[in-house]
Amino acid sequence: MRAPHERRAPRRRRGPAALAAATALAVLTGCGAADMTRQASPYAAAQGTKTVTLSVQSWVGAQANTAVAGYLLEHELGYRVDTVQVDEVPAWDALSQGRVDAILEDWGHPEQEERYVRGKKTITPGGDLGVTGHIGWFVPTWFAEAHPDVTDWKNLDKYADLLRTPESRGKGQLMDGSPSYVTNDKALVKNLGLDFEVVFAGSEAAQITQIKQFDKERKPFLTYWYEPQWLFQRVPMTEVKLPEYTEGCADDPQKVACAYPHTPLRKYLNTRFADAGGEAAGFLKRFHWTKEQQNEVSLMIAEQKLTPREAAKRWVERNEEVWKPWVEPTA
Fold first, then answer.
1. Structure pTM?
2. Residues in Cβ contact with 56 at an 8 Å cutoff, skipping those fewer than 6 apart
3. Alpha-carbon distance 100 to 46, whole Å?
4. Which tens digit of pLDDT belongs to each residue from 281-322?
5. Terminal-to-terminal C-alpha distance of the chain
């Protein structure tokens, strides 16, 4: 993210074939030497086989998107669906190369858009997901109610001692998730002159575990977090107001000193798949739901411990009026 995330963490259970695909993908995208962007997508090359490969980012909201889309592609349209878990930026490379056919939740990557959408034209926008993403800094609501001024960044240093942890080197802790997330937090701490240290939990799952533990112990915390996210229903959190976001204020990652924007989350398709993917491509372009609907599935996966397939099945059974127009555009 976005976003996240990794916004956004906890991701994919993959069989041997998908794991092998992910390993091969990591090799291809990690070296940066070969330009593979002219390769056809697996779908386009397969000439008539009904297979779709979806990228799964490492946060549970993205997992919910892919679970529901994949379930409907399989059970309503008769496709075989493969998934590959890839970090945010390498996912764009994979999409351009045709190693995956679609990304269903992108939090905004202008450099990749310029290169692949407007430049090479190997990636085609697939429309809005229907969900607006937002990254911010949050404290537990019970702490904000006890100390209302903590919700203004200018007062954070006043609470640095209360927010210190053994990992934060004598400063207040700003908890982040995965180091793979694209964030401005280290620059923000530096440029706003805050007495805080950014500490990475390691993943969305680890960050959620830490947030829950702090909340259970009534220990105050400051964390990078994002919406949509099911955890707000379990641990109420209040956003800390950072300097107002204005267009261009985050263009220089070293000088950024403003809040994160609100970002309409978007889908992207491999261009050959977008043109030749038939029912599957049309379905993914129409796939469009709300934050509440995504959170409903995310909650089943992350909190109720259903598999993504089980969560998708339950949601699909309860929401035919929502997904029917995705499958049958004239319905």
1. 0.73
2. 11, 12, 62, 63, 66, 83, 84, 85, 86
3. 13
4. 999 999 999 999 999 999 999 889 999 999 999 999 999 999
5. 34
| 124: three-class secondary structure by DSSP | strand
Helix, strand, coil tally for the chain in percent (to 5): 45, 20, 35
Spatial neighbors of 176 by CB under 8 A, at least 6 apart, are 183, 185, 198, 199, 200, 201, 207, 223, 224
Q: What distance in Å separates the CA atoms of residue 292 and residue 318, rounded to the nearest whole number?
A: 14
Gap between the Cα atoms of 196 and 181, Å rounded: 19
Omega cis (within 30) before 10: no
Mean pLDDT for 243-257 is: 94
pLDDT at 1 over 90: no
Question: How much is the average pLDDT of 239-261?
Answer: 95
- 256: number of Cβ within 10 Å: 21
Helix (H/G/I), strand (E/B), else coil: 40: coil
CA distance 295 to 331: 25
Contacts for 114 with CB less than 8 Å, ≥ 6 apart:
none
pLDDT per residue over 166-210, tens digit each? Answer: 999 999 999 999 887 879 999 999 999 999 999 999 998 899 999
The DSSP secondary-structure symbol of 114 reads I
